[in-house]
Design a protein that fits this description.
Keywords: Membrane, Transmembrane, Transmembrane helix. By secondary structure, the chain is mostly helical. It has a domain of about 35 residues.
């Protein structure tokens, strides 16, 4: 598993070394952020609360890991 992670990190680092790829990624992130802010501003109060809770749960640490089985 660690090998796959290291390979993916090297692949991403190689792609992000190109200035155009880095600018494209930053642009995509900025556009996505602006779209979500507009959605949040246009949403009604109930929907805004649901969006806020969804984002909080997305960024919250997991409550239980998949690999916590200690029976082995």
């Amino acid at each position: 598993m660690v090998h796959v992670y290291a390979t993916n990190r090297r692949w991403v680092a190689a792609r992000m070394a190109a200035p155009r790829a880095r600018a494209l990624m930053k642009g995509a992130i900025a556009v996505t952020m602006v779209v979500w802010i507009v959605i949040w501003l246009v949403a009604g109060e109930r929907q805004r609360a649901r969006l806020t809770e969804a984002m909080k749960s997305f960024w919250a640490p997991p409550t239980q890991s998949i690999e916590t089985d200690t029976s082995k």
